[in-house]
Amino acid sequence: MNEAELAERCGKADNLARKQLYELYAPQLMAICVRYAGDRETAQDILHDGFLHIFRSFGQFTYKGEGSLRAWLSRVMVNEALGYLRKKALSCQEVAVEQLPDVPDDEDGNLEQIPQSVLMQFIRELPDGYRTVFNLYVFEEKGHKEIAAMLGITEHTSSSQFYRAKTLLMKKINDYRKRI
Asked: What is the C-alpha R_g of the chain?
């Protein structure tokens, strides 16, 4: 079954198509949830709620060509994760400036030496607010103005949290490089 047919059948509440949709896209969507939640258990809850939302709102989806279904599913899952974080009021967690490591920007070097799984673990370990802003800025390619509106924070807070996230990540990366 191709993507267009799968979308059409899911829109008609076809349970076989829904099962196939879940099996096909759950791993990719779970990765999104883990990126935002930081832990697998919470990510599974978000994934579950996200799929319920997807199945209830399939009538709002319009197929626009190859890849549009995956893009829509990803957007729904990101929004579900952000909603979860807003409910838990985690998007405003901060680390005191004094606790930030002093890492020069020129030490970022070549990240290809570091396995992707290690980098993703470092991202998951960020404080929730930093991780959320970092994910939106880097992976969803949102600007600070848009992030601020999505999270109910100021642009300055968004850029500050992004800077602090990058600083903490560089510290983790540099520490990792020293160990290998």
From this structure: 18
Distance CA 33, CA 147 (A): 17
Digit-coded pLDDT (tens) for 86-104: 887 544 444 444 444 444 4
Query: Cα angle vertex 23, ends 20, 25, to 5°?
Result: 100
Helix locations, 67-154, DSSP H:
68-87, 116-124, 128-138, 144-151
3-state secondary structure of 110: coil
Residues 6+ apart with CB under 8 A from 144: 137, 155, 158, 159, 162
Structure tokens at 174: 């540099």
Whether this prediction's pTM lies above 0.85 is answered by: no
b or e along 82-98 (b: 16 or more beta carbons within 10 Å of the residue's beta carbon)? bebbeeeebbebebeee
What sign for the dihedral angle of Cα 84, 39, 42, 59? positive
Q: Which two tokens stand for residue 160?
A: 């500050």
Low-confidence ranges of the chain (pLDDT < 70): 89-110
- Round to whole Å and give the CA distance between 52 and 42: 16
Specify the DSSP element, H or E, that contains 50. Answer: helix 40-56
The confidence score (pLDDT) of residue 118 equals: 92
